[in-house]
Amino acid sequence: MLHSDFAALFGHAPEIISEAPGRVNLIGEHVDYCDGFVMPFAINDRTYAAISKRSDRNIRIASAQRPGEIFETSLDQLSANQEGDWERYILGVIWAFEKHINTGLNILVDGGVALGAGLSSSAALECSIAVALNQLSEVHLPLPQLARLAQRAENEYVGVPCGIMDQSVSLMAQAGSALLLDCRDLSTVQIPLDLASAGLELLIIDTRAHHALVDGGYAERRASCESAAKKLGIKALRDCSITELEAARIKLTELEYMRAEHVVNDIERVHSCVSHLKENDFISVGKILTQSHASLRDRFEISCPELDLAVDTSLANKSLGGRMIGGGFGGSAIALFEVADIEPAKLAIAAAFKAAGYVEPRFFTSLPSSGAAVIA
Ligand code: GAF
């Protein structure tokens, strides 16, 4: 489909077609920019990109989701924060490749990751382009470097101060595993995540809430963590144990302490979760998810009533544990269930949302899927 649509649009076949997935973060939230450990996995839903080089320096971008529209610019006009809307995620990646991209491009994307659901549709878009250009330009950057390049596109070109988690998992995930990622050196360990064998499934609940705080709120949390680390005399909060943090409490404002406490504890929860997964102890995994939610809600203060209702209703309907995921102030929550309990829980969550007057939530499930790839 993408191949023939591209040919119909641009008058020739694409040189390359790539794909990159969205993600769910199992545990380790708002710790990537503190050099912490995170454990996301790639979902089935992915974004596809078809690309070919041009003989001039023009860039033409189209999307299967916006038929009839073509965004046009030139390689010579790329500069941070200037052009486009959603196209900036693509332009940012081209920009970040710098001198390695020296011809114009025709690009058609087909986004299959739900927008605004906190499943990282932006990283999927960036990484679908990054993995294609990595091959097309023959730079062949290793995946961790490609993740940094895509993050730089989002930080410096689009202007979103995100960490490195989403791009890393979109590029480095493997089917059947969650990705244990050290956000300092980007080393990874694939942690098998076979919920089905244990009769379990992870429900993804898209609350469809999006509170305005999301923009400033993320940057503000990041700034608090960075100022806390500075006052503690460490490079990042990753370099601090909970005992050291408590001992140095006097150096921090109450707000910085609350934020830092979440980060230090959530990094510890990632390590505990890895141990429990290795022992197939899903009861303990569930408890850790719920503890993380409480910490994100009460110490990091980035939950919202819809996310709390999704988690609380899941817990009241036999979930082993659940939590909000991603940046916060809306988006999705996850909840771990025995397979037989999923359908009744979905009905209960939908009913609770209706009773509260919230928009009807959307439900997904996904097995841990593979990372970005060139597919044609
Ligand atoms: C967003 C960011 F993009 C990630 O880098 C990460 O900080 C996440 O929020 C919170 O863990 O998805």
What does this 3D model show about the protein?
The chain is of the alpha+beta class and about 375 residues long. It is about 40% helix and about 25% strand. It is built from eleven helices and twelve strands. The strands form two sheets. Strands 1, 2, 3, 4, 5, 6, 7 and 12 form an eight-stranded mixed β-sheet that branches. A hairpin with a 5-residue loop joins β9 and β10. α3 packs across α5. The radius of gyration is 21 Å and the shape is globular. About 50% of the residues are buried. Bound molecules: 2-deoxy-2-fluoro-alpha-D-galactopyranose (GAF).
> What about the largest sheet?
8 strands, mixed
**Helical stretch count?**
11
Question: How many beta strands in the DSSP annotation?
Answer: 12
As a percent range, the share of strand residues is 15-25%
| Ligand inventory | 2-deoxy-2-fluoro-alpha-D-galactopyranose
Helix/strand order? HEEEEHEHHHEEEHHHHHEEHEE
What's the Cα radius of gyration?
Answer: 21 Å
What is the averaged pLDDT score? 96
Protein structure class: alpha+beta
Give the % helix. 40-55%
Gap between N and C termini, in Å?
13 Å
- As residue ranges, the low-confidence spans are none
What shape does the CA trace take? Answer: globular
Short description, anyone?
The chain contains 11 helices and 12 strands.
Keyphrases for this structure?
single chain, about 25% strand, binds 2-deoxy-2-fluoro-alpha-D-galactopyranose
